[in-house]
Amino acid sequence: MSDRSRREYAVVGKNERKVDGVGLVTGRPKFVADLDLPETLHVKILGSPHAHARIVEVDAHEAEAMEGVACVLTYENTPSTRHTTAGQGFPEPSPYDTRMFDTKVRFVGDRVAAVAATSERIAEEAIAKLHVRYEELPAVLSIDDARRDGAPVVHDEEDATGIYDAKRNIVADVDIDVGDVEAGFLASDVVVETVCETQYAQHTPIETHVVLAYLDSDARLVLRTSTQVPFHVRRIVSYTLGLPLHRIRVIKPRVGGGFGTKQEVLLEDIAGLVALRTGRPALLSLTRAEEFIAARTRHPMRARVKLGAMSDGTLRAVEMEAISNTGAYGAHGLTVLANTGSKTLPLYNKAPDAHFFGQAVYTNLPVAGAYRGYGATQGYFPLETAMDELAERLAIDPIELRRRNHIRVGETSPIFQKLGEGREGVSQTIKSCELARCIEVGAERIGWSEKRGRRERRGPWVHGVGMSIMMQGSGIPEIDMAAATIKMNEDGSFNLLIGATDLGTGSDTILAQMAAEVLGVTLEKIVVTSSDTDTTPFDVGAYASSTTYVSGNAVVEAAAKVKEQILSVAGALLGVDPGVLDLGEGAVIAPNGEHVGLDRVCHRAMYESNQFQIGATASFVPTESPPPFLANFAEVAVDTETGLVKVVHYVAAVDCGVAVHPKLAEGQMEGSIVNGIGYALTEEMLLSSRGRVRNPSLFDYKIPGALDVPKIDIVLVDSYEPTGPLGAKSIGEIGINGPIPTIANAIYDAVGVRLKTTPFTSERVLAAIEAA
Amino acid sequence: MGFDQVEIVLRPTSIEEAWTQLMERGDAARFMGGGIDLALFAPRSVKTLIDLADVPLSGIDEDSSGLRIGATTTMTEAIESPQLSSYAKGFLRDVLRQVAAPLQRNLATFGGTLASGHPWSDVVPALLILDAELTIYDGSERRLSLESFYGERAASGRSLIRAIHLPPIPEGGRGAFVSFTRTAFDVGMLNVACFGSVADRRWASVRIAVGGTPGLGTRLRSVETLLTDQAPSEEGISQAAEAASAAIDARDDRRASASYRRKLTARLVARCLREIGGLSKGGAR
Amino acid sequence: MTISFSINGERRTVRIEAHESLLDVLRREGFVGVKVGCHTGDCGACAVLFNGRAVNSCLVLAAKADGAEILTVEGLGTGDRLHPLQEAFLDEGGVQCGYCTPGMIISAYGLLSRNPNPTEEEIREAISGNLCRCTGYVKQIRAIQTAAERMRSGDE
């Protein structure tokens, strides 16, 4: 159900079947591990049992001597180049603090060595035969530990770069301000302050990290990998292994979920080196336990928001302080921290005084990385909680308070300029914002005025409703680049070659829809090849909600160039000025109604006259990052005797610009919301007093299943972004930010307690109710 | 762990043959029903699995002495059986439907589930309050209460459960059950099973079992005694609930703290008792 | 040891090791539609139909499959002739990354083969052991309802 775009599109806006769908529902071999190559070696990694230790010695003799063991990798026989694993554009705004195999381990599960053998079983047995001596070091196991004077130093190596202050375990430090926030608070009629803490949580893609590395028949290294960032993989592996970039090919087949954890060069260096050294294919995949322990996680954060407002509800001063735990390595540490402020504060742009500051610190704990929402998720918790607290203090309806303060079309925020991906950002003016409509529709759908403040009781259950609003971004302005190549075939079809990375998000499909729209053909006439560094042009990859907007604009531009060529050939064919021609229904259309089939046109260009390959490449670098906007509403029921919280109804009204594929757009919202509900209520990585993950399994780390999902209403509000490809913005991340603050606000409505620590387990909720 | 060390798989066709195979192979052998417990938890020492699939041990029948569930009957087969699904007004079927998910229930056998006796088991407390008995075979056949079976725990995975027996339900008897989980596909951080009837406005046949404490479900006989022959009342239920809370062996673990478990015990026992006593304030969850 | 079973209607005799799970053997035999998600029965990605019942193949000892009938998603339908469940998953947007899809479809198939007119609650229960991180289950449930409707009315 959606307010559909009223623009007359033929392909965009339609719920086409995904271009890769048939293969997926019939179990065709489309994923990395589905390719079975002869002589494949299985690689296993030995993970550290200690949170912090020096490796004194790795004795691999017994392991190496085992029948079936092809090679053993340790710090002694691998490149020592320090790099970042973060899949970001070069130069990566993450520290180069990672060595392929280091002489020090920094978290339980950190790499110690790797074995490649003819079977998984033999590799595991060989791992058990590695004899390692460690010198244990004191560990830092919390944000506060890390920042204490004299705390153990997680990164004391000489050759790391890009760390803000390694001796104090500070990866990144951000401090930006607008106006004078202290003066602003003094001038405010009301000031509220809230501190929230979010937990270690995990993406749990159903397919764990996996890579198959092999040498092709020209002895080039091919990495067939489950990644979000094929081009960054190529560059970083080249750098890490000291192998020329042109000797590496990275192919992303189908990926079984990413959500940010695969925006990382996690395994490809090991598998690649094994393939190079042995000449045999090397398959490396993480077990589910390893995925929990040694992949990537959400950044746990402590975030404080202080709001000052006038009695009429207009915000005067907004301050956010965030301390982020980036774990043992600093990938994404700076940028997630910066996004905590850059994707939240501009929403309330009218406050003349604002301040965002914070730090990302190292700990000897699992490594945090990119995760859908990317800091905004952690930031909206205290921000939207504080807004509700402010509304209560001012005796203004929470919805009304949002209405009076949120950003609108034609407006800007100084935060856009001041805070970008760790460095300065890019100024922009909002050109599409249907947030007011989102709020209106959502409030009506949840039954806000009937339910708010009623506290309807059914036995021990009390009901309440809450809301929140948010924005995100669409790509990283002036940093992201995407390119697309389109070439025509003589049956009137086209090959669309895009670096853009489909994780199951459906980008292959929606980008093909855009091309089809411009070229006036049906979807099946667009044959997509994506994410192959040899054959597809550059794309930064799937992150920062960039694919629809940035890759989409490249596709639309390439299609426009190809259209021009087609019309020029057709013009020559018909003897008319190409300027009067158009494309539609698989043909060139003349003003007199005459149709010339595209196959006819291509035949002419390919075989007959003034031959050339009709085709074009276009690149796009965005100059702005037009935010999608979202209003969330939830009805919860709280069991006052046990503390159990159930979400009864969740409404998300979203402005994503034009929805290229409404069902896929809804799917992005539904999936991110359910993930967010798990993050809010049940998901928690538990750590022992020695820094070990205590629940590295889906048995003990609970993500929502089909019986846990409330009634979810997604409303795609009609919108159009003028700078977007055919009016589109993005939708990939924003949904996950909603559940925590919305549910927290709904719980308050129900039982009058404000929860400030996630997840809102029944035990925590009951304790809060009983303490009140 | 799990299947990794298994070297031999046998498929006997009779209970005697199965027992002989176990005796021949000693500690390195285990019986296998569905195999879920073995796939996940079999110790490294287990090298031989004796698959009971071809031993005629499945099927459910009912006579005047009650319900008899063959040990290799799967959870799903039990749920689908007309006799079991009407037993105790559907109480047991409703409990079984909460165990894991259909994928597990389609594979897990009744006997295997009881033999593995995981402390979070929902089935165990539910059967304890129904006064379940087992027929086991350890060279010869014998019958014992489920409670005694866990009391003995001599064989664990090495006793061959032949059948589970459920006596006829006392007149007017009702059951109530709660497994308090985080998500639906989860084991409980506590489970509560209550059974009882009200006859002549007095509690009769009250049985209470609490499990997942994190220990295996056990009957709380001291609490049952508090209620027996009393007139059902909110006060009496409260007292019993508090007594249950104090009686359990509660400990902290990954799922919950001991103190929270005690609170839950009190509140969930109260709810179950209200439900079976007909004083429902809103029903068990 | 050697076992013999029927897979997607075809009889096969296969050499296996005693310790292997059915999941290992099926993938080794080329049935890569059966996915590895956790190897501990927690995610359902490896679900197959075993003698007519949906089970986690990672929990089934391969030796147990001797004499069994197994159905995987590859056996439900192919590109030119899809099963109504496969069609419905495509039409309703129930496939995002597709990794949980084979197991999900198998569980749905198991349900519909016994209960052709399930309630929404029964559908949720049937797939409660199949975890998905992409879709939030909304469109998958819709797809199963659509497939059930189509199958009841005889649409192919």
Question: How would you describe what is shown here?
Answer:
The complex is a heterotrimer of chains A (772), B (285) and C (156). By secondary structure, chain A is of the alpha+beta class. Chain A folds into 4 domains: 21-29 and 480-620, Aldehyde Oxidoreductase, domain 4 (2-Layer Sandwich); 33-137 and 226-287, Aldehyde Oxidoreductase, domain 3 (Alpha-Beta Complex), CATH 3.90.1170; 140-201 and 297-428, Aldehyde oxidase/xanthine dehydrogenase, molybdopterin binding domain (Aldehyde Oxidoreductase, domain 4, 2-Layer Sandwich), CATH 3.30.365.10; 431-472 and 627-772, Aldehyde Oxidoreductase, domain 4 (2-Layer Sandwich), CATH 3.30.365. Chain A is built from 20 helices and 27 strands. Chain A has a 7-stranded mixed β-sheet with strand order 3-5-1-12-9-10-11, sandwiched between helices. Mean pLDDT of chain A is 97; it is low at 1-6. Chain B has 3 domains: 2-53, Uridine Diphospho-n-acetylenolpyruvylglucosamine Reductase, domain 2; 60-166, 2-Layer Sandwich (Uridine Diphospho-n-acetylenolpyruvylglucosamine Reductase, domain 3); 174-277, CO dehydrogenase flavoprotein, C-terminal domain (Enolase-like, domain 1), CATH 3.30.390.50. Chain B has helices spanning 15-25, 36-41, 75-80, 82-86, 91-96, 102-105, 110-116, 123-128, 146-152, 221-227, 234-247, 258-277; strands spanning 8-10, 29-32, 48-51, 60-63, 66-70, 133-137, 141-145, 160-166, 174-180, 190-199, 202-211, 218-219. In chain B, β2, α2 and β3 form a beta-alpha-beta unit. The longest helix of chain B is centred in the C-terminal third of the chain and has 20 residues, at 258-277. Chain C has 156 residues and is α+β, with helices and mostly antiparallel strands. Chain C starts with a strand and ends with a helix. The longest helix of chain C has 15 residues, at 138-152. At the A-C interface, α1 and α18 of A face α2, α3, α4 and α5 of C.
